[in-house]
């Protein structure tokens, strides 16, 4: 959530930032109107309360009964007006909060201008895309040929966009998760196992509600929400708390299944396991001092890149443009891995610095050692990496002429030493 003072003091900057995101900025006018109205009503309330306190002291000293009764009657009118104003302030604040909650973060000046993901900028490409002397299958054909992915039973169990992983594929999925958690732990991110369901205020604090309500799964009876990413519970860990500055940065990693109502266009990504309503992801998260969040962004990006380097998968770093930038983010870099069967780049990680946007919503602060006063810290998050797209890249990259798949060496300890995946019986 943006600091209201930023909108109040520089509304044109905020309007320009929203328009760069290809969004309508009309709500800023209403925010400014409500802000003026709120402060005016608060000033009136404070003046009336001061008057009531002053007169109350006078009433105790007034000996004339008729004069005392007149003052009491007058103060009853004042108290009624105070009650009316308090109700008005609550209504104004509620509308103001609703408007502020759907205004996105202001992009960093380094974010390239653009209207959509087509305008994202490739920063650099790492690794070499090998030339093959044999044709590579897309993962959906490879998965079915080796009996690794069962699409029919996924649909039978749940519906479209669900699937079952068999044997070595299920183990490969588990191996990738364990490998990434172990790696990030060595990189200095402390592992957390968090609930896969959270309260609504945790989703609000992390910036998912109300903006993305239609994309979330909700248990109405218990009022629990399925997490769309481990970023949500990791944000909630310190919600409404003040952290000692000496503890920063706090770095965490966590695995969760992720649940999202994917709004997929007809004909887009209709085959395979690239898009689904349920998927696994390992997340990195950081609570950082505002002066150090830039360093933490570079650190987190390097940590995610190391995952792809150890898997020996070609990838590229892409700077999100203003039109594609996530709601919470000031700046974000995507990591896209090459899938040689489908011959396309797949996003497997987004590494973002959210500044104090998320911590302001969630009430997460640190106590400044110089002033002794609480300040909002900065939060960062990044996938390290997302599945199943990482598995898609592994299956397609490591497939052999005979149709088998070589297990990347770095994953073999979690695969029981298995070196090659062949057809599941």
Describe the structure.
The chain is an alpha+beta fold and 425 residues long. 39% of the residues lie in helices and 20% in strands. The strands form five sheets. It has an eight-stranded mixed sheet. It has a three-stranded antiparallel sheet with strand order 5-7-6. Helix 3 (27-61) runs antiparallel to helix 4 (65-100). The longest helix has 36 residues, at 65-100. The mean pLDDT is 95.
How is the secondary structure organized here?
Elements (H helix, E strand, L loop, with lengths): L3 H6 L1 H10 L6 H35 L3 H36 L20 E6 L12 H7 L3 E2 H7 L6 E2 L1 H20 L3 E2 L5 E2 L1 H6 L12 E2 L4 E3 L4 H6 L5 E3 L5 E10 L18 E11 L4 H18 L4 E5 L11 E9 L4 E10 L3 H6 L2 E3 L6 E3 L1 E9 L2 H9 L7 E2 L13 E2 L4
Parallel strand pairs: 4-9, 8-14
Antiparallel strand pairs: 1-11, 2-3, 5-7, 6-7, 9-10, 10-16, 11-12, 12-13, 13-16, 14-15, 17-18
Helix pairs in contact: 3-4
User: What's the average pLDDT?
Assistant: 95
Series of secondary-structure elements, N-terminal to C-terminal? HHHHEHEHEHEEHEEHEEEHEEEHEEEHEE
> What structural class results from the helix and strand content?
alpha+beta
What is the CA–CA distance across the termini? Answer: 53 Å
Give, in spatial order, the strands making up the sheet with the most strands. Answer: 1-11-12-13-16-10-9-4
Please tell me what the overall shape is: elongated
- Percent helix among the residues? 25-40%
Count of discrete alpha- or pi-helical segments spanning 4 or more residues: 12
Please describe the biggest sheet, giving its number of strands, its sense, and whether it closes into a barrel: 8 strands, mixed
Report low-confidence residues grouped into runs of 5 or more.
Answer: none
Proportion in β-strands? 15-25%
How many strands appear in the DSSP assignment? Answer: 18
Backbone CA Rg: 27 Å
